[in-house]
Amino acid sequence: MDPERFPDEREEMLAVGMGAVYTGTTHRGVLRAADTDPGPLVERYFEPYARAMTDAVAGRLAATGRAIVIDVHSYPREALPYELHGAGPRPPVCLGTDAFHTPSGLREAALEAFAGCGETGLDSPFSGTYVPLDYYGREARVSALMVEIRRDTYMTEPGGPAGPGLEDLAGALAALVDAV
Hints:
Elements: H1 39-64, E1 67-75, E2 93-96, H2 104-113, E3 120-122, E4 142-150, H3 165-179
Helix pairs in contact: 2-3
């Protein structure tokens, strides 16, 4: 289950079994039958997450007149078989953007915050942002940025201990939050 995917057929990740309800694994194995009814999982996981995020954004809009969603993920140094765009650049930090929801000031603040963490790229190997569907493409007061951090910059892959880069990355994330 990925509560940050589109819940319908618009999502290109459906091609590899990784839409809102996963039917495939990161290594392109079968997780569940392709004809699995997604309804129960969407109802149990996707909808509560979506409601909570929508409520959080609504709260920020009511309190401050704007909301900023900074969505943080990590990715491995080497592309996994499910990655549709895995052949592109894999910088230490990747910023996923959206033409409507990522204003230039937010993008520039992130580039500045991560300047000391090695190269920061845009939209490769992952692109896009998470915005609750009630606001997606409609409400310019909701800004969003996805921050993808390459795992080898802060830990021993595939799941080893944290390394010396962790403090720099945590500091960069804090600086970004402070800046926006």
